[in-house]
């Protein structure tokens, strides 16, 4: 089962290396990894997707929580999160250009570059949506694809900042 782990860390050099290194040292495989500064410049947020059972995920959470720069770790509930990825897809076009553009409308993909023989699309959504759009484009001559990692937030009023206080009280 794929899990999304949200990690609030101090925004300083080397933190990402230490978090990623922890995964590597323990033999944990990362499916997706994104990082960016939060609305508070003191913190960055790392979103990691990993595949594993409940015990494995709890072990990962405990190991990450031990790092000094980590303020909070939260496993986002499968049905209680909003998660999105983004992809750029370049497809070959010829007389089928209008057909491809109509398909992109169905997926709400945006044209970000258009040339005589290619169109590059940007698509945002869950992994299933991006994979479905990619599969639809393959027969037309999908030339190149790049995807971001998952970014995710828990639904409702719960935040990783609420979790920060809980984590610090228990340690």
Structure description:
With 171 residues, the chain is an alpha+beta fold. It is built from 5 helices and 9 strands, in the order E-H-E-E-H-E-E-H-E-E-H-E-E-H. It has helices at 15-26, 54-65, 97-106, 127-141, 160-170, and strands spanning 2-10, 32-37, 43-51, 70-76, 81-92, 110-114, 118-125, 142-147, 151-154. The strands form 2 sheets. Strands 5, 6, 7, 8 and 9 form a 5-stranded antiparallel β-sheet that branches. It is elongated, with a radius of gyration of 19 Å. The model is unreliable at 165-171 (pLDDT under 50).
SSE map:
Elements: E1 2-10, H1 15-26, E2 32-37, E3 43-51, H2 54-65, E4 70-76, E5 81-92, H3 97-106, E6 110-114, E7 118-125, H4 127-141, E8 142-147, E9 151-154, H5 160-170
Antiparallel strand pairs: 1-3, 1-4, 2-3, 5-7, 5-8, 5-9, 6-7
